[in-house]
Amino acid sequence: MFRVLLTTGLLLPLASAHGSHRRAIRLEYTAPAVCPNKASFEGRLAARLGYNPVSEPATQLVTVAVQVRGELLDATFSLADFGGAQRGDRTFSGAATDCEGVLSGVALALAIALEPLLLTRGPTDAVPPGETHAAVPAQVPNISSASAAPSDVHLLVAVGARGAVGLLPTASAGPSVEVRLRIRSFSVAVDGDVLLAPTVDMAGGRVETSLVRAGVQLCGHVAFASLCARGTGGALAAGGAGFDNSRRGWQPVATFGPLLAARWRPLGGLFLQASLAIDVVLIRSAITLGAVELWNSPVVAGNAALLVGWQFW
After folding, report:
1. CATH class entry, domain 153-311
2. Which of 112, 174, 240, 273 could form a disulfide with 194 if both were Cys (CB 3.0 to 4.6 A apart)?
3. What is the model's pTM?
4. What are the pLDDT digits (tens) for 118-170?
């Protein structure tokens, strides 16, 4: 869920080579309301060390700051002496829905920075009377195990409605679905929609049209906004009534163009997404009656969608 294995190795130079005596630190902690509070973080740190290092007189200052960046969060901690010497700082990143897991990794890395002997100490080490000893494994646990998806990889599924102009003889709308795999600030998505247009009168008869298509998106993300290149392919179905020799037929349709989307997460993994897109029609379609062309698709069309979805990772 977050990167800790490489980071903990880098933290060892931050701490003193002597880990036999207890550390006394002053903790400054800031985090949004969705994260564990300061007392909870102190408890995690104490569980790793076997004692609570937050006490006075303190010899070192530890600062822990958590910031949310859209669907991600960063947890940074720094270690400094009161004399002004900066021991270093490290940042952990994870999903905004997993602040508790990210802070568990911060607590582990900070505990090792304060007490390097945690890497070799077993759970049977003696603890002074009157204090509870929290078992600390002899090795750094593999927090980023295969049982959890990496924090910078996300799977999102959404459903909703899409409306379009220019792809059919009249404005059209219908259901839409999207599946997206996001890696940090980039993503790839596949989508599909069915556009239905109302019956339109043409040349003394009635024409019904619909469009079924699938698409692929390649996107870049900044905060809540994303800009994508989207290509689609599908089939336009048209049928007539009131004409001589009326029949129903299919024609291929292909488009390519930019898509601009905004995503809002009101709660947990739930999100709302709105998008606007321009479709440059690469394979155009037409409706004809004998030798008479009743409608021809324009070169440029447009569509908009409103989706509701869930982020599974």
Report:
1. mainly beta
2. 174
3. 0.55
4. 665 544 343 333 333 333 333 333 433 333 344 578 899 999 999 999 999 99
